[in-house]
Design goal:
about 40% helix, five-stranded mixed β-sheet, Rossmann fold, 4 domains
Length: about 575
């Protein structure tokens, strides 16, 4: 059987179809656009949810062939061709300006501006055949100047409108403008220190192209966030904003349950549907529940060659992860509690507003929560109105996102521990001072963000993090010894110094902490964890039974000669 490749990183619709990649049909998006008749449509969706591929699809569908062969065959057998003549007659009827702004992600304003000019120049070059038309006689010099990147910056400010005018003059048809990843330059500029320069340029570019452009038929803009306070869309009263809260267009970005099931069936991996659902489902756009397409495709590709492949967090390297990090690293006690609640499978309620600015993200914790929601790191479970405000109940969508939160918390904790002086805690532990050791651990536990606090694995990792900076000692974990596996062993290469053995137990309530400690100490004796220590020449062990209940710790200690367990 011929293998149908999965489109990892393929965002050109023509390449997708002609090279016969597996394609999830999103062409009904075209029908909905034509039905809604929006003049300027801004779609905000998380990264890697198919925005660029959809924009490429629109270009291939609407654009006149010009100097290339017709692209109509690309749509053979796809849903849009069954929509009727009202829609199919629109195929290849428009000049199209297609621009992506992702190349403006540069470290300086000068480089970012140069890349924006280049992106615009490349679109001019794509349409260079119009230069031979008589209608371009009085426009050709400016056109060539922009195309060759020799023009002044002022020439680029209204360059999309000028290109629209040129195309209209040649074809006598109003243009469609497609602008992909419009907010990438703004986000990058904010973090790189030239935000106001970029805002001014983008505002002028968009205002001339989308507001005062008589040659525009309609436009589609995509990004992760709606950014209105910066007045990027100043006075653009025909702008329709379709965010993840909007009821329209819900299923066109991301994969529906049916589409994921069809993909797994195609690759004969239907048994993995539950795993796919747990890891990559959970996003809600309007009334549609969707899966993360990037992660689904990556996991399906792994499954295609290995039916026992494990799911991985392929979304974990997206740029917005830095906001998760910032929320956790800057968290107040209240926010720590909310993060804990989310990571334990709970939910939180927050007032939501869509007009976030990059300048305002860090001014309040509420803005950070909003940013995480609109960029896909939290899902909507419920929404309510109170006066003029909307409040959304949010939760973590799936295991992939939970992994990102957990990994970020672990890194935050390790970095914090490195900054602290834990000498007193270490000394108390090594001297058998259960009270001092307990107080030190409890103090550290209060500071951290706990997750899975109903599972011993969390506390195990917590202790290993605490012990990471201990000098002159080594730490072993989950090693076979005697009749079982001890939890943690802290030892010196000097066999004359006592070995520290720690066994951890969870309590069902605060009152049962003492009993949990007793069970832990009993297990150390029963499993004879000192067997290996006898061979190595150690003579004394300090055994700790450590009981945990949420952020409460109780410790009991026994000093025991090696061989007397």
């Amino acid at each position: 059987m011929t293998y149908t490749p999965l489109p990892i990183g393929i965002d050109d619709f023509g390449e997708m179809i002609t090279k016969e990649y597996y394609y999830v049909d999103k062409t009904w998006f075209i029908k909905e656009l034509l039905d809604k008749k929006g003049k300027a449509n801004l779609f905000t969706r998380p990264r890697r949810f198919g925005k660029t591929l959809n924009m490429s699809m629109l270009k291939y569908f609407f654009e006149m062939p010009q100097d290339r062969t017709s692209s109509k065959a690309l749509f053979d057998g796809l849903r849009i061709m069954d929509a009727g003549e009202k829609y199919t007659k629109e195929q290849e009827q428009y000049p199209v300006i297609s621009l992506t702004l992702k190349s403006a992600k540069q470290p300086t304003w000068e480089l970012a501006l140069a890349m924006l000019k280049r992106a615009i120049a490349e679109e001019y070059y794509r349409h260079k055949m119009i230069l031979s038309n008589d209608a371009m006689s009085d426009r050709s010099e400016r056109y060539k100047s922009i195309m060759k990147e020799t023009g002044n910056p002022e020439e680029y400010v209204d360059s999309l409108k000028f290109l629209s005018e040129c195309l209209y003059g040649v074809y006598q048809k109003k243009v469609i403008i497609l602008i992909d990843e419009y907010d990438v330059p703004l986000e990058n500029a904010y973090y790189s220190g030239f935000y106001h320069e970029m805002t001014a340029f983008i505002r002028s570019l968009f205002e001339s192209a989308l507001k005062t452009n008589p040659y525009l038929d309609f436009s589609v803009i995509t990004g992760c966030l709606r950014i209105s306070k910066e007045s990027i869309f100043t006075g653009l009263n025909n702008l329709e904003i379709i965010s993840i809260l909007n009821k329209d267009y819900g299923e066109h970005f991301g994969f529906t349950e049916r589409e994921v099931q069809q993909m797994l069936t195609f690759y004969q991996r239907e048994k993995q549907m539950d795993t796919m659902r747990q890891w990559y489902d959970g996003y809600r756009f309007g009334n549609s529940e969707v899966y993360n397409p990037w992660s689904v495709i990556n996991f399906t590709k792994a499954l295609a060659t290995n039916e026992d492949a494990f799911p991985i967090a392929t979304w974990s390297n997206t740029s917005s992860n830095s906001i998760v990090r910032d929320l956790i690293y800057q968290a107040s006690d209240e926010v720590k509690g909310e993060i804990e609640q989310l990571m334990l499978g709970g939910s939180i309620e927050k007032k939501v507003h869509e007009d976030i600015t990059y300048e305002d993200i860090y001014t309040t914790e509420e803005n950070l929560w909003n940013f995480l929601f609109f960029t896909g790191y939290l899902r909507m479970d419920a929404i309510r109105m109170e006066n003029v405000n909307r409040y959304i109940t949010m939760s973590i969508p799936n295991n992939e996102l939970l992994y990102i939160y957990e990994n970020t918390v672990e890194n935050w904790f390790r970095e914090n521990v490195k900054k602290e002086n834990l000498t007193a805690l270490y000394q108390a532990m090594l001297e058998g001072d259960a009270v001092g050791f307990q107080e030190g651990l409890e103090e550290e536990l209060y500071k951290t963000i706990s997750y899975m606090d109903s599972k011993e694995a969390f506390y195990h990792g917590f202790l290993l993090g605490v012990f990471a900076q201990i000098k002159g000692y080594r730490v072993k974990s989950n090693r076979e010894a005697g009749l079982g596996r001890y939890d943690i062993c802290v030892y010196s290469l000097n066999v004359r110094k006592p070995v520290v053995l720690l066994e951890l137990k969870l309590a069902d309530s605060y009152r049962q902490l003492g009993e949990a400690c007793d069970r832990a100490l009993g297990q150390i004796r029963e499993k004879q964890y000192d067997e290996e220590l006898i061979r190595d020449g150690y003579t004394e062990a300090i055994c700790y039974g450590v009981g945990f209940y949420k952020k409460q710790v109780q410790i009991k200690v026994e000093r025991t000669p090696i061989g007397m367990f």
